[in-house]
From TrEMBL:
Pfam families registered for this protein in UniProt: KdpC
Compartment(s) of residence: Cell membrane
Organism: Sporolactobacillus shoreicorticis
Membrane-crossing residue ranges in chain numbering: 12-34
Purpose of the protein: Part of the high-affinity ATP-driven potassium transport (or Kdp) system, which catalyzes the hydrolysis of ATP coupled with the electrogenic transport of potassium into the cytoplasm. This subunit acts as a catalytic chaperone that increases the ATP-binding affinity of the ATP-hydrolyzing subunit KdpB by the formation of a transient KdpB/KdpC/ATP ternary complex.
Protein name: Potassium-transporting ATPase KdpC subunit
Family to which the UniProt record says this protein belongs: Belongs to the KdpC family.
Chief place where the protein resides: membrane
HAMAP family named in the record: KdpC (MF_00276)
């Protein structure tokens, strides 16, 4: 009986410590030292919150850069990949459909030159970033739809490129929301 009481006390102490005190302290420190990140890295346009830099959104207009396909329809309340294997017929059908959509939206592109992140979902289904190859393939479509020059959009992609973390981790990429905010602001001028 002594061991049962001791384990109940330890459980109660750790429940309070790790379930209440630790999250409150981490939340407080995060909000004091990194308020933008702790509040979800929310981006504004004309004073209105339009999204988070951390969560992909569905941009379907030809005048915007498009994010990766999403396995969860861009709803952040349940992020997940499809978990389908490379030989699964549902995955093959999905990717074939995505390839057809990319070709329809961006003109004739050889399958070999379509970057994987343009037709495959990310592990979370909410990846807010796209590869440079993906962004560059979308430039002609965005230029045609917005009237912005391709050279301006190429410079924009280069300017918004985020390089490898610490110079070695990941690949250079661009945040789709950031690109589209600059495009929107340019069009508003």
């Amino acid at each position: 009986m002594t061991n049962v009481l001791r384990s109940l006390r330890v459980t109660a102490i750790f429940a309070v410590l790790l379930g209440l005190i630790y999250p409150l302290v981490i939340g407080l420190v995060g909000n004091l030292l990194f308020p933008y990140q702790a509040q979800g890295s929310m981006e504004k346009h004309n004073g209105t919150i339009i999204g988070s830099r951390l969560i992909a959104q569905s941009f379907t207009s030809a005048g915007y850069f498009h994010a990766r396909p999403s396995a969860v329809d861009y709803t952040a309340n349940g992020s997940a990949g499809s978990n389908l294997g490379p030989t699964n017929s549902a995955l093959i059908k999905e990717i074939s459909g995505n390839i057809a959509l990319v070709k329809k939206q961006n003109g004739a592109i050889a399958n070999a030159s379509i970057p994987a992140d343009m037709v495959e979902t990310s592990g979370s289904g909410l990846d807010p970033d796209i590869s440079l190859a993906n962004a560059r393939l979308q430039i002609p479509r965005v230029a045609k739809a917005t009237g912005l020059s391709e050279s301006y959009l190429q410079d924009l992609v280069a300017r918004e490129t985020q390089n490898r973390f610490l110079g070695i981790f990941g690949d250079p990429h661009v945040n789709v929301l950031d690109l589209n905010l600059v495009v929107r602001n340019k069009l508003d001028q």
